[in-house]
């Protein structure tokens, strides 16, 4: 008897008992031609169809597992496992999916879940936020709970994630650390969340189609690579309505030793970029290619060619010359190949860097900055021929300082103001990082809409070509329909241009402005960190040494043979006293600079207000123009389809 052909057995056999090493069995239930549509399309309004291969539905299996995990006696059992590994201080594999496995939770979890408006065994992040608000926790605590328990890209959550969020809220109510590790350590003695009035919460469940779309959010093709660090995007929902604040006049800025014209400073802060940075197309270098940048300003009448290393040198010089000023950061370095996308991001970062300096009331007057912008010579050659003075600002101005005038202009509560400003920095940085991330997503979506309109237009034009000749001779209606296709295609092209233009405008204006203010927040934080490192002194120890040396000097003064030691002590006392005076003057001038920088930092709130005002105005104009275009073209298109 002939042996069964291994290929035919593996291909046509309905069983899956082929020996190890044999050829894999092809799936005959798969379509012969793959669908051109992505089954995980995030824009679809229904969930992907369950996979019924091998006689079972994967979706059913997933549901059964979820029900086993989430259901129990009275719905309060999270899961049933024969054993659960103990989680100690050194446990690192703690996840939302397993941290509460096997724990019987009190009835409040079930009550809160019912009032959160579940649909398809999921609730929206917005409804979860409403539930957490009944806990009485602060907004920052609620946001941290969301950051810990909910994925940054999710719009809805499962029952298990909901329970983890409530458990974290219970920890926060007991002033315990909000973290999965801490939750794992207190698995056996979890506090009960207190949600007074939760029975009064009435929310509308989200639709099933909305839930299915949210479940597929992780497959969002427009998701950018930049992820927010800690704050959850979904937590940035609409909060309670607050009254509109009354505009107040910003305080006058101080520059150097005299107050600057506030209107002039406001014009610089709110105005467009003064200096442009452009990439030179040709790279230089024999073995290691580098990119040159044209740094130019028509307003300042400057033009220079600079490398990235030149920008880095300028930053290092400014840090040494102005350690207690707000100094911008540079975009990061990159070793290896640099594509066009990276170069464009770096160019924009360098533009923000140099314009930050030009807008600063003190830095823009620095002689090194002026030379950097105006010197046509290669900056490396120039700095070797004319090395700049790197002494800090106080040492260069110490001899001309009017200490009494400076002391009178330093706020008495400067330390309290700096402490309050520092406390707000980290949350503000996280929020602005999130807003930059969200704006990038919006721009990506708008760019995708522009591309889809073009593709739709091309499809309609192709359709008009194939349908131009009707099988009925002298058919008037089909000819009109074909012309209607062409009119719609032309309209979609115009719509695509509008989307594309608005995406470009948003990228160059609102996104860059958000990053500009984010850079300011980070620069202010770095200035405070430098102050902690560099604004130290040893005045107290010097005063003690002066006192001790004075006692010794009094003891040996006039004693025969001690004249030399007395002279040494006298010189040491005079040197220490001079050092004390210098350090006290430096401390005073440092506080004066910090007060000025705090005013400059606060004055930039005007820029934030204008940024959002301009954004709202531009979006209003865009939406009105887009609506007018649709209305205008709908009339002409309707005429071809006989609908006018």
Automatic annotation (TrEMBL):
> What are the subcellular locations of this protein?
Cytoplasm; Membrane
Provide the primary localization. cytoplasm
Gene Ontology MF, one: phosphatidylinositol-3-phosphate binding
Q: Topology with regard to the membrane?
A: Peripheral membrane protein
- Domain (PX) ranges: 271-379
> Where does this protein have compositionally biased stretches of type Polar residues?
16-26, 57-66, 205-233
InterPro entries membership? AH/BAR_dom_sf (IPR027267), PX_dom (IPR001683), PX_dom_sf (IPR036871), SNX8/Mvp1 (IPR028662), SNX8/Mvp1_PX (IPR035704), Snx8_BAR_dom (IPR045734)
Which GO cellular component does the record give, naming just one?
Answer: endosome
Record-linked PROSITE patterns: PX (PS50195)
GO biological process, alphabetically ordered = protein targeting to vacuole; retrograde transport, endosome to Golgi
Q: Which Pfam families match?
A: PX (PF00787), Snx8_BAR_dom (PF19566)
Entry-linked CDD domains: PX_SNX8_Mvp1p_like
Q: Which superkingdom?
A: Eukaryota
Q: Where is this region: Disordered?
A: 1-69, 205-267
PANTHER family attached to this UniProt entry: SORTING NEXIN MVP1
The family annotation for this protein states: Belongs to the sorting nexin family.
Q: What is this protein called?
A: Sorting nexin MVP1
Q: Which organism is it from?
A: Bifiguratus adelaidae
Q: What is the lineage of its organism?
A: Eukaryota, Fungi, Fungi incertae sedis, Mucoromycota, Mucoromycotina
